Amino acid sequence: MNLSVVTMQMSSTPKVEENLLWLSEQFSRLQTTENCLVVLPECFACFGGAENEQARIAEDYGNGPIQDFIAHQARKFNLWIVAGSMPLKIKDSELVYASSLLFSPEGQCQARYNKMHLFDVDVADATGQYRESATTQAGSSITVVETPFAKIGLSICYDVRFPELYRKLQAEGAEIICVPSAFTYVTGQAHWQVLMRARAIENQCFVVAPNQTGTHPNGRQTWGRSVVVDPWGEIVHQHSEQKGYLQSKIDLDRVRQVRSKMPNLQHRKLF
Ligand SMILES: O=C(O)CNC(=O)[C@H](CS)NC(=O)CCC(=O)C(=O)O
Fold first, then answer.
1. DSSP notation for 137-149
2. What letter does residue 41 receive in the DSSP assignment?
3. Distance of alpha carbon 39 from alpha carbon 109, whole angstroms
4. Which of 44, 86, 114, 132 to mutate to test the pocket of ligand 1 (most atoms within 8 A of CB)?
5. Rounded CA gap, 191 and 184, in Å?
6. N or C: less crowded end of the chain, CB within 10 Å?
7. What is the per-residue pLDDT for 217?
8. What averages of pLDDT result for each successive group of 10 residues across the chain (271 residues)?
9. Which region holds residue 43: left if phi is over 0, alpha if psi is between -120 and 50, else beta?
10. What is the distance between the alpha carbons of residues 8 and 111, in angstroms, rounded to a whole number?
11. What pLDDT is stored for residue 186 in this prediction?
12. What are the CN hydrolase domain coordinates in residue numbering (predicted)?
């Protein structure tokens, strides 16, 4: 079965309306076919401002302007949309979940994943210290969701450095794995493409990884180079540093073809 896959590479600012307006312009330009999956980057609605910005724009799950916007766009343009990540409130907590939501073309939210691995890392860039856990609660369960075209595994950004998560997603049947990201320029330059290709090759899945790009208002720099990789590790398409979208047709039979010739998933010894 064929699927049209879109990576939306953004240079998001702290202003939600600005980012959503830009997105609605992009959506209106897409060529929509029967099945079209659009994946947005991590923090698509608000990025690159103050430390408390995610708490500021956080919504209750199932209720809020950002989720309404995505549901509306999904219906209007007949799209499956993975809303990369957005902050969702937690009852009686200052912290938020960084959640990735899958919307159907009917505008229904069909799956939710809360980012498990938080980026508490020192990077040799202008920001220096990243402490995601200061504002974010780590998730504790994995998400694989069945759609009419494929089973989709959800993950976010720094998760990509933990291959055991992807083994689990694959074991649960994932054929497409989304990795919406806000990878830093420095770590992206070193590791971005290798990590995305490795997860695709070892799990024989399509990997769809839209990234943030450019210099954001708080000085944070992200790597761009959003990418779609096929189950053999070949690049289906890759962005430069510019914001915008790329759209490609993929053949989902590729997953079965690659797995039947090289059944390395059945040759596992450990887990
Ligand atoms: O905190 C926010 O504002 C939004 N969240 C992010 O930007 C997150 C956590 S700081 N970024 C990453 O996970 C980058 C991972 C990365 O770059 C790597 O693994 O090398």
1. EPP----EEE-SS
2. P
3. 14
4. 132
5. 10
6. C
7. 93
8. 97 98 97 92 97 96 98 98 98 98 98 98 94 97 98 98 97 98 98 98 98 96 98 98 98 98 89 74
9. left
10. 20
11. 98
12. 1-252
**Residue 66 half-sphere exposure toward CB, CA atoms < 13 A:** 27
Please return the burial class of 183, using the count of CB atoms within 10 Å of its CB with bins 0-12, 13-18 and 19+.
buried
Test site for ligand 1: of 130, 212, 223, most ligand atoms within 8 A of the Cβ: 130
Residues 46 and 11: beta-carbon distance below 8 Å: no
- Host H or E run for residue 73: helix 65-77
The residue nearest atom 1 of ligand 1, judged by CA position, is 132
Question: Would you state the pLDDT for residue 137?
Answer: 98
* 221 touches 250 (CB < 8 A): no
Q: Which distant-in-sequence residues (6+ apart) come within 8 Å of 235 by Cβ?
A: 193, 197, 227, 228, 229
Domains and CATH numbers, the chain: 2-265 (3.60.110.10)
Q: Which residue numbers are catalytic? A: 42, 115, 157
Question: 60-65, long-range: CB within 8 Å, 24+ apart, which pairs?
Answer: 60/88, 60/89, 61/88, 61/89, 61/99, 61/112, 62/109, 65/16
Closest residue by Cα to residue 75 from 102, 111, 51, 105: 105
For residues 178 and 153, the answer to whether their CB atoms sit within 8 Å is: yes
**CA of residue 32 to ligand 1 center, whole Å:** 31
Ligand 1 center from residue 205 Cα (angstroms): 23
Q: What is the pLDDT of residue 65?
A: 98
Give yes or no for residue 132 CB within 6 A of ligand 1. Answer: yes
121 C-alpha to center of ligand 1: Å? Answer: 9
